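Put briefly, the fold is written as integer tokens. The lines below illustrate.
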Amino acid sequence: MQFKFVGEDPSDAFGFMWYPGTVHDVTDDHAIRKLSNSVYFEAVGSPEPAPVDDMPEDKFEDYVKQPKRRGRPPNAVKVEDGDQN
């Protein structure tokens, strides 16, 4: 993947000497992740992201979150008027 240096001053990073406007081909995965998140570098000729396929309808039901039940749970045992102990 190629990256262009958009900083103002020369810099030495990931084994390259970067001057303003220079482009280098970077192959190290760690360096690609770091340079992708840097404000001083921009990807050159980056491919378009792959389209995301829609989730099949039968799988969608498995991923729907059930709403949380709020409040105090109901009493499990009903107490009659005369039986409090």
